[in-house]
Design a protein that fits this description.
The chain is an alpha/beta fold. The protein has 13 helices and 7 strands. It has a 7-stranded parallel sheet, sandwiched between helices.
Length: about 270
């Protein structure tokens, strides 16, 4: 049976992951933006990959269920990379929570029912989830265990109106939801983790760099140990590790791939 790599969200990071991991597999590309989906489909097909594509709305339970069922019909769903998301410069708080928080919960649930034994999944979260103050134990339990359809009705989620607040809490929720989902995936003999990218040179990040928060982002790059912006290939490399045999004892955790930004923030300035 053919191995299936499913990539949800085929922007900069999603396309890099598909190129890195797609050889010899059926690559199922899924995205809400049909123009982007068609462009990446054409590019990967021309490069010799066996590609299928499907439009998806990750905030729709029916759409995500249909995608998971379609992936399962193509072969053995051995690798899943969920990169779909919206940033504060792109969308309202409501849309960010629907896509980044609810969408991730739906993908984890539905693909946790079809992932093959020995398979693995990665959710692309964000270093922003590490910059947000920790939630209470009660809030964490709610985000971990409430059915996806109830997440946006939680009082502390439904009251959020600022996109710059919605984004980091959604990404922290991704970390929490992945930890909880690792049990469901584990019952199928599969693993799931998240990756928290730093500032990566994608169209989304370029929008953020051009926004009012751009100077702050450039400051974070300057203070980091690597001193550079990340590339989609950096994220593809980390994804390849977590989805591959080298990550076989890793599940339910988050990998920061941020060039050292969070380490620098937490360490603070050295004594003079």
């Amino acid at each position: 049976m053919t191995d299936v790599l499913t990539v949800i969200g085929v922007g900069g990071m999603g396309e890099a992951i598909a190129r890195r991991l797609g050889s010899g597999k059926t690559v199922l590309l899924a995205d809400y933006n049909e123009e982007t989906l068609a462009s990446v489909f054409k590019s990967l097909s021309a490069a010799g990959h066996h590609v299928e594509s499907r439009s998806v709305d990750v905030a729709s339970p029916e759409s995500v269920r249909g995608l998971a069922e379609y992936a399962d019909s193509l072969g053995s769903v051995t690798q899943v990379a969920h990169t779909a998301g919206l940033s504060p410069s792109q969308a309202s708080a409501e849309a960010i929570l629907a896509v980044d928080l609810l969408g991730t919960a739906l993908v984890l649930q539905q693909f946790g029912e079809v992932v093959a034994p020995g398979g693995a999944g990665v959710v692309i979260a964000s270093m922003a989830g590490h910059m947000f103050p920790p939630l209470t134990a009660e809030q964490e339990r709610a985000l971990a265990h409430h059915p996806p359809g109830e997440l946006l009705t939680l009082d502390f989620i439904g009251s959020i109106t600022d996109p710059n607040f919605a984004y980091p809490i959604a990404k922290q929720a991704n970390h929490i939801r992945v930890r909880a989902a690792s049990a469901q995936w584990g019952r199928r003999g599969a693993r799931v983790n998240s990756i928290s990218p730093g500032i990566i040179s994608t169209p989304m990040s370029q929008q953020e760099l051009a926004s009012p928060v751009g100077d702050g982002m450039r400051g974070m790059i300057a203070m980091s140990a690597t001193g550079r912006i990340g590339t989609p290939e950096d994220i593809a490399s980390a994804t390849a590790f977590l989805l591959g045999p080298g990550g076989s004892f890793i599940t339910g955790t988050d990998l920061l791939v941020d060039g050292g930004v969070i380490a620098a923030i937490r360490a603070g300035s050295p004594p003079s």
